[in-house]
Amino acid sequence: MPILSNTILQRYRYTCLDQLASGEGAGQLAVQRFYQQGRLTNEVQGQNAWAILQVGDELLAQRNPALGTTSLLATDVQRSVSHVLGPTLSQARYTPYGQNPANSAAPCLLGFTGERAEPMTGHYLLGSYRGFNPLLMRFNSPDSFSPFGNGGLNAYAYCAGDPVNRRDPSGHSFFRNILKALTRGSKKTATGSTRAGKTMSPAPAQPYASKMGTWVPIHNYKKLSNYAFSFTNETGDNLSLFMHGTPGKAMLYEGDVGMNGKEFAKYISQSHDLKKVKSITTIVCFSAAADGSAPALGQVVATKLKRPVLSFEAEHSTMLYFHNPPQPSHILTPELFGQTPYRPKTFQPKRQLLIRRA
User: Fold this and answer.
1) Contact indicator for 343, 319 with CB cutoff of 8 Å
2) 358 within a domain of the structure (yes/no)
């Protein structure tokens, strides 16, 4: 029977925010990692340093100042790095669960869904929390949110078995690729468009009828990030904010640390004019769900902004309709109409007790 060695092959160090700060392999220099909004931006190992250039969630380039090289990056809808343009053009290929076939990896720090794979194992430490093995198509350890929380019944599953349409940057709960245009063609204009040499008619001003719910017109559309936007109703007295979320958190960017209720309320007041707004709708997953002993995100926002807030206890999905891109004209949100799977809940502002010292 073989004797197992006690040699430590890899050491990891974490920050107080549970982010992976450095890794050190046996006989190798330590690799330090730096983040911004939950995204890896720099990696330093000895004299070598790499920088990832990105705007919001869009990966643009990778730089190595020590070598004086810059490579442009191209990504797919999953944010996976598919092409790297440096001195030569390199292409990466992935299986649905992110495994690199032989000799198909591109010379880039980031890979599947824009995450950093560990050099020794090829596994992805998603959210610096637990390892995802793309070869086995599952996590190496169970989700601490399972089985009764957002982790789901299968504590080891990745994206509930749908890696093509979902991502899990946090290692806890997946995100759907929900901000997809629901149109009948591409590059539509008010007068029509061309595709493959053929003239196409423009999208109708009113979207088609749907059994899922009612299409709601979007007014005063405001893009907040590639994964978040806001809009109002026709009269402007209701403000709706659409973005990713987990219990107690609202996320402008996929995979970031998120804003708690106080931070979210402050962001809303600073980024929007609330003079005419009488009520707020947070189209944010789990925004009506309490985070342990802490109150729900919607309740904190209602109290801080002194307006009623409609939120949802469960995960939600929606579709957008584009009459004249790039701005959507309608949104299909069945949860706004009280369908029970989304468990809508309206929070009223609570009185805050002010204690003053004499």
Assistant:
1) no
2) no
